[in-house]
Design a protein that fits this description.
CATH topology of the largest domain: DHBP synthase
Structural class: alpha/beta
CATH architecture of the largest domain: Alpha-Beta Complex
Number of helices: 9
CATH superfamily of the largest domain: DHBP synthase
Helix content: 25-40%
Number of domains: 2
Order of helices and strands: EHEEHEHHEHEHEHEEEEEEHEH
Distance between the termini: 47 Å
Strand content: 15-25%
Strand order of the largest sheet: 1-8-2-3-7-4-6-5-9-10
Number of strands: 14
Low-confidence stretches: 214-218
């Protein structure tokens, strides 16, 4: 059963302990309740997807306590800095280039070279950020496809039994998700409208840049073959369970471990000397649905 704890120092302390141990917790923000986990821990991020039943590995927004913390993770150009100084803390998310040494799990960015960053203004999320000392990936705290939660009871209805703790700090003030703006060079682009009004044209590239976009994700440069039990001599085989491979998503067949390793192993295989990539079968249930969705997208694209 999921426990609901009113906002307090003790509740934040308990939530921080869970986050540091690799578990996601639900917590209020000024927009909607978020399902927060350590953005530097791939297994913790995979548990977000597991709890939500998220159908695709979309990029997740990373919450940080202040502008300085954001600058240690992403490259904030002049346009991004101007927006950040105007609207942070608050319901604005900036998509910026990811720094190579940021330490963010690749599952957070869906293997992309950009990252979505936000400095929240809500006391509960700010308290959790400071108590954990970690950047927190936090999509909305609801099952995928259901209505975004603006009260703790909404989270409980959707995720009861799938997470350990909800920190209840009353209804969210804004009630809709943050505005998302891409500041990746060139003109600013509005990727998702929200509470903050930004003078930027709507604009979407071919690749996913933020939550909610359905364009192609990162795909390797090499041909990718799926459902492979035995690889050809020119294929780098990514195994799973009983199929050992050159490397393995999870030798024990654990879907959380597989999700956590997915993008890292695709990158690793793409850099290997072998000209083609093969992936062992992954059962299509639970997180396996999202893993297979991601693999099918990668296999369908050729650079």
């Amino acid at each position: 059963m999921t426990r609901v704890a009113p906002f307090s120092d003790d509740a934040i302390g308990e939530a921080a302990e869970l986050v540091r141990s690799g578990e996601p917790v639900a917590i209020a923000t000024e927009t909607v309740y978020g399902l927060a986990a350590d953005a530097t821990n791939a297994a913790a991020v995979a548990r977000i997807y597991e709890a939500k039943g998220r159908p695709r590995f979309n990029p997740l927004i990373v919450h940080v306590p202040d502008l300085g913390a954001a600058g240690r993770i992403g490259e904030l150009g002049p346009e991004a800095l101007e927006l950040a100084r105007q609207h942070w803390p608050g319901p604005l998310t900036l998509v910026v280039p990811l720094k190579a040494d940021a330490g963010i799990a690749s599952l957070v960015t869906a293997g992309l070279a950009t990252i979505a960053l936000r400095v929240p203004s809500h006391r509960a999320m700010q308290a959790l950020l400071r108590a954990t000392g970690r950047p927190l990936a936090a999509p909305s705290a609801n099952a995928s496809g259901s209505i975004s939660p603006t009260r703790a009871e909404h989270v409980l209805q959707s995720l009861d039994g799938k997470i350990e703790l909800i920190v209840d700090d009353g209804p969210c003030g804004r009630g809709i998700e943050s505005t998302i703006v891409a500041a990746t060079g060139g003109a600013l682009r509005l990727l998702r409208p929200g509470p903050i009004l930004v003078d930027a044209p709507a604009g979407f590239g071919e690749a996913i840049e933020s939550p909610g976009q359905l364009q192609s994700h990162y795909a390797p440069s090499k041909p990718l073959r799926l459902e492979v039990i035995e690889a050809a001599s020119d294929e780098y085989l990514i195994g799973f369970g009983p199929v050992a491979g050159d490397s393995s998503l999870s030798r024990s067949g654990d879907s959380v471990e597989a999700a956590a390793r997915l993008f890292d192993l695709l990158h690793f295989a793409d850099m290997s000397p072998k000209p083609r990539i093969a992936v062992a079968p992954v059962p299509g249930e639970g997180l396996g649905i999202a893993i297979n969705d991601r693999l099918r997208r990668a296999a369908g694209r050729r650079d």
